[in-house]
Amino acid sequence: MELPRIIRVKQTFPDRGLKDVAGSVLAELKASPFASRVKPGGRVGIGVGSRGITNIAIIAKAAVEFWKGAGCEAFIFPAMGSHGAATAAGQADVLAHYGITEATMGCPVISQLEVVSLGKDSNGIEAFMDKVAYDADGVMLLGRVKWHTDFAGKIESGLFKMMAIGLGKFAGAQRYHTYAYRLGLEHVIRSVGRQVLGSGKILGGLAILEDAHHKTAQLTAVPVETMEAQEEQLLELTKSWMARVPFDLDILMIDEIGKNISGAGMDTKVANRGVNGEYNPWPGPKFQRVYLRDLSSLSYGNAVGLGMADVIHDRLLGKVDWNPTSINSLTASSPSAVKTPLHYGSDLLCLQKFWPTVGKLDPKDVTLGWIKNTLVLSPIALSENLLPQIKERGDLEILGEPEAFELDSAGNFRTTLFAPQDLDLAH
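RESULT FIELD:
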C-alpha cells in the first residue's frame, strides 16, 4: 500500500469557554442553598472523579474556598469506583496527577475504600457510600455531565452516576455493573442515585459542562430537590455541543487511548464502537476500521478499550498493565473491551494489513482520518481523496498543502499531527 497524502484540517466549533472559572464556581455556589444545609463548623466532603476534566483542580480549589468561607471544614475524597486499580493509594495518585493534593487544595484529601450500606431497593440493589463521606455532615459532588460510552439515555454520565458508582467505591461499582447487565445501566444509576439522595447526606452537586474544545463552558449548582430532572436537561444541552469526526471513513487512526480520555479508553460515540465489539452502533459518522497507535501515559497502564480496535501498534500492547486493565474491565462487565486485537510493529504494517479489509480494491480509494484522541478532534488529518468533500464544508479550514507521510527505517511515522510534547509515542 502506498500511503495516501494527508491534509491537515481545522474544525470550527463555537468557543463557549468561561473567562473566570474559579469566579464562576464561587458565584454558582454562593447563589445555591448548599451552605444553609450545614451548620458552621460542620465537615463537608467534596467528591471528585477520575476523568480528565478541564480545570478540575481550579474548580475543586474554588469549592474548598467556598466551604471555608461558609465556616465549614472541607475535605476532598475520590469518587471513582474501581479506577486507580481499585486501591486507595491508586485513587489518591489519580487525583494528585490532576493537581489535587492536600498542599494544593489547602484541605485534606482522604482516599480509602470502606463503604456504608444504605439498604436495598425493590430489585435487591444494595446502595453503598464512601464511609468517610457518610460520616461527614454533608457531601457535595463535582461532576462533568456528558454522554456515556456504554449506553444512550436521558441520564448518562454526571452527578447521578457519580452518586452511584463513584460514591459506592469498588464494592458498589462491581455490584452495580452486575445488576446493569440485566436491568440496564441507566436504571441502576437512577435507582442507586435515589437511594443515595434518600440518605440525606448529599447537599447538591456542581455540574460541569464542556464545549467541543473541552473548555469549561458552564457550571451549574444543582440542588438535590431537582437533581434528576435538571441533569436530564443539562445532558441534552451538552450533547448538542458534541464534536465529531466530519466524515464516514474507511480507517480512523487514533494516536492514544486512556482512562484520562474516556471511561472506555476512547469515547465510543466518537469512534462509533460498542464496548462489546459492536461496529458503528451510534448515530453519526461510521468507520470501517479503527487503528490505535499508543496508550496515554496518564492512563497508568490501564488499556481498557483496546479491544474495540481492529488493529493496534505493538508499542500500545507493550505498555498495558493487565492488573488495572482487567480489574476495570471485569468490574464494568465488559471483557470484550480488553480483548487483544491484531498488532504489528510499525505504522506501515498496521495500515497495509488492514486496507484490503474495507471492501476497496484500489488503495487510492481508501479514506483515512487521523486524530490525537477522541477528546481532541481539531486539528484532524484527512486523506487527500476527501478534498472535494472538505471544500464543501464551511466549518472546515484547510491548514496547508497535501503532504506525504514520512517514515523512519522501521516503518513508523516521522510525520506527526501534533507537537511532540503532546504525545507519548516512543518509537
